[in-house]
């Protein structure tokens, strides 16, 4: 009774420590929002205002010109559509392989199960490195094809083990009764295990999708054909245009042939980020769930 | 005679059991076929590919017909200043990341755990997790626009009457930017595992310490921290195991020619030597060096953790 009263009392008044903690967390949260505000402000400001360093978190010399430029750029829209399709395709391939790999490995009776598991886990801690993978992609004739962006990273062993944990946690009795009814292993997977694991499958699909959407390195290594550039590669080219020039000359918008104005860079950053900002708040819960399962496994 | 017969019988039985197992689990093996083929081709074939490090690899001759040179490639690499520069930078950046980035999520998780307003907690967490979902290209673009000489931060400093800081082209400011952006990107997301571990702590411990009149700090020190100790250990082992390996995107996007003395790391070195210049053997050797040292570090850290009576990762 006494402790209840004291904890009730504590709830009402905020101590100095509480206020310090809240101020700190709010300040940290602001550092996650300010960059976006600045990008938006830059993208809506006139170039003169940006060059003369007048732009803070509010647009100066408001103009929609940069967004008009981006939205009327056929290449940019093409890359956006292509990246979305690529992400979906990659996610489907990755999930298919992951499900096919994870389910059999939940069965303790399976011959060679431990050997297969060890062989999988080993690849998490030891890899051949960038160059042998590069040579492999080259030898398989996948350079400058969509396959080079889909297959080399398609199945993540980490995700497979998370999914295996999900499957193992399903009630065993359901599978057993289906087996008694004469259901094959494939039937059990399709009719019982998969429908019950939809939330976890959604979570892992999101992991795959984010990896592909954010992936940049493989495109840099394997793709030289502009039509096959994913969004990140395109963005990198826009941002790195005249960057060296800028940092050497103190950011005075020097006139050259390949100058991309800062406002356009900022608008491109926003353009690439918006798809993530749109889906992220709704799906955040799934991401967190996925990490927690991964953590329990560890 | 009898013994031979028995042996024969036993081996037959073994064979039958083998066939029986395969027949019984035919669907399971069928399902495994593609994933295993995938792992063999895309994970184990590159591991076999490291033999290039012991060859004078010629892209037209391939692994089969390239000339074997033993340890020559390694000897050559270990004489290169640029290799030591990349190795040194990799270690340095990783050590800085460990010092600044490892405790940060633990501290934030403890602070978040102290917040009682559920709604406030939920909203700030959503915001704090966001940077984890941004690619390094996006972050690099933002950093460039914010920290360049004409960017927001320098504008702000100028308005305060302070001198410009060349965040992107001078050693110390660049290092600070690189490290703090890394902390910023991971601090929120890193808290999830610790917060999950904290929910596993027995509530009665806190209640009992309330009755004893323990201060908040003491509760954190004596209940919360011990409760997440094994999680801290595991993450520390994993991070130590990654001391010599470094992602490609972050140093590549954030580095530039003015800071390459500090930003050129093993991954960007391998890219430059291997893919840009086509010295496949050298780049493979550096990659193999990195993989082997990484594995040794991981095993070593795990061994030490176990010796100290902690949970390891295996």
TrEMBL record, chain A:
Bilayer topology annotation: Multi-pass membrane protein
One annotated Gene Ontology cellular component of this protein: plasma membrane
Pfam family, one: BPD_transp_1
Domain (ABC transmembrane type-1): residue spans on this chain: 80-282
Keyword Endoplasmic reticulum listed: no
InterPro entries with a match to the protein in the record: MetI-like, MetI-like_sf
Segments crossing the lipid bilayer: 20-41, 80-103, 115-137, 149-167
Swiss-Prot/TrEMBL GO biological process terms: transmembrane transport
Keywords attached to this entry: Cell membrane, Membrane, Transmembrane, Transmembrane helix, Transport
Subcellular location: Cell membrane
CDD domains on file: TM_PBP2
Protein origin, superkingdom: Bacteria
UniProt keyword Oxidoreductase present: no
Family of this protein: Belongs to the binding-protein-dependent transport system permease family.
Name recorded for this polypeptide: ABC transporter permease protein YtcP
From TrEMBL, chain B:
Top-level taxon of the source organism: Bacteria
Alphabetical list of InterPro entries matching this protein: MetI-like, MetI-like_sf
Keywords, sorted A to Z: Membrane, Transmembrane, Transmembrane helix, Transport
Subcellular location: Cell membrane; Membrane
Residues covered by the ABC transmembrane type-1 domain: 87-301
A GO BP entry: transmembrane transport
GO cellular component: plasma membrane
Gene3D superfamilies per record: MetI-like
CDD domains given in the database record: TM_PBP2 (cd06261)
Membrane-crossing segments per the record: 27-45, 95-115, 127-147, 175-197, 285-305
Topology versus the membrane: Multi-pass membrane protein
UniProt keyword Transmembrane helix present: yes
Family: Belongs to the binding-protein-dependent transport system permease family.
Protein's name in the database: Protein LplB
Organism: Paenibacillus radicis (ex Gao et al. 2016)
């Amino acid at each position: 009774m006494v402790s209840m009263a004291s904890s009730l009392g504590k709830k009402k008044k905020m101590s100095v420590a509480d206020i310090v903690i809240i101020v700190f967390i709010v300040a940290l949260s602001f550092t996650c929002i300010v960059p976006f505000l600045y990008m938006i402000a830059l993208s809506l400001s006139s170039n003169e205002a940006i060059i003369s360093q007048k732009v803070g978190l509010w647009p100066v010399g408001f103009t929609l010109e940069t967004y008009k430029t981006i939205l009327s750029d056929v290449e940019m829209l093409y890359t956006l559509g292509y990246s979305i399709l690529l992400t979906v395709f990659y996610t489907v391939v990755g999930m298919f392989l992951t499900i096919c790999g994870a389910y059999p490995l939940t069965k303790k009776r399976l011959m060679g199960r431990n050997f297969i598991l060890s062989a999988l886990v080993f690849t998490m801690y030891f890899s051949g490195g960038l160059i042998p993978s590069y040579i492999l992609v080259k030898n398989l004739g996948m350079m400058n094809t969509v396959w080079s962006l889909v297959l080399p990273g398609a199945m993540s062993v980490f995700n497979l083990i998370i999914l295996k944990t999900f499957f193992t946690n399903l009630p065993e009795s359901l599978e057993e009764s289906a087996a008694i009814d004469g259901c094959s292993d494939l039937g059990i997977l399709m009719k019982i295990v998969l429908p019950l694991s939809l939330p976890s499958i959604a979570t892992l699909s999101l992991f795959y999708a984010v990896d592909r959407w954010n992936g940049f390195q493989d495109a840099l290594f394997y793709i030289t054909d502009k039509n096959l550039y994913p969004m990140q590669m395109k963005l990198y080219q826009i941002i790195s245009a005249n960057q060296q020039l800028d940092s050497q000359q103190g950011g005075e918008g020097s006139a050259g042939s390949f100058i991309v104005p800062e406002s356009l860079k900022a608008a491109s950053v926003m353009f690439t980020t918006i798809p993530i900002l749109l889906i992220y708040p709704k799906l955040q819960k799934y991401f967190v769930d996925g990490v927690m399962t991964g953590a329990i496994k560890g | 005679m009898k013994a031979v017969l028995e042996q024969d019988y036993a081996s037959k039985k073994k064979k039958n059991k083998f066939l029986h197992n395969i027949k019984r689990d035919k669907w399971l093996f069928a399902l495994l076929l593609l994933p295993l083929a995938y792992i063999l081709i895309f994970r184990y074939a590159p591991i076999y590919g490291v033999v290039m490090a012991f060859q004078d690899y010629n892209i037209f001759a391939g692994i089969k017909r390239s000339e074997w040179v033993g340890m020559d490639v390694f000897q050559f690499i270990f004489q290169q200043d640029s290799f030591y520069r990349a190795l040194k930078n990799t270690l340095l950046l990783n050590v800085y990341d460990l010092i600044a980035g490892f405790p940060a999520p633990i501290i934030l998780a403890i602070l978040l755990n102290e917040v009682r307003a559920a709604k406030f907690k939920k909203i700030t967490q959503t915001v704090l997790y966001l940077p984890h979902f941004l690619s390094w290209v996006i972050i690099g673009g933002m950093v460039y626009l914010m920290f360049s000489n004409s960017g927001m931060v320098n504008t702000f400093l100028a308005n305060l009457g302070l001198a410009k800081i060349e965040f992107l082209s001078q050693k110390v400011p660049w290092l600070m930017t690189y490290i703090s952006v890394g902390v910023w990107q991971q601090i929120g997301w890193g808290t999830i595992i610790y917060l999950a571990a904290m929910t596993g702590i027995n509530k009665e411990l806190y209640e009992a310490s309330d009755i004893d009149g323990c201060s908040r700090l003491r509760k954190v020190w004596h209940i919360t921290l011990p409760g997440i100790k094994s999680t801290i250990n595991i993450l520390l082992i994993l991070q130590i195991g990654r001391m010599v390996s470094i992602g490609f995107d972050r140093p590549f996007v954030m580095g530039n020619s003015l800071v390459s003395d500090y930003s050129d790391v093993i991954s960007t070195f391998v890219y430059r030597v291997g893919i840009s210049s086509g010295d496949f053997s050298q780049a493979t050797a550096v990659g193999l060096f990195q993989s082997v040292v990484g594995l040794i570090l991981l095993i070593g850290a795990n061994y030490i953790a176990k010796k100290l009576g902690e949970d390891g990762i295996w």
